[in-house]
Amino acid sequence: MRSRGAYHHFIKMQGENNWKYHSWDGPAIEPIEGEECELKKAWFLNGREYDYESWKEALKNREGLPWYKQSNINERH
What we know:
By secondary structure, the protein is α+β, with helices and mostly antiparallel strands.
């Protein structure tokens, strides 16, 4: 989502009502270059904010691909 001069990345977990900031691929809040923005880059996983180093460490500790990147999502049995 694009808002207030930045891209915002969210996830909605199954069984939950609210969207949370989340991104495995980079900052969940990314200021858009060349646009006025009061926000700074921010890294989130499942709604929890991390500094860059802690976010990178959390990525190292996960196993496998996230559910939304699994190749068998669209398979029918």
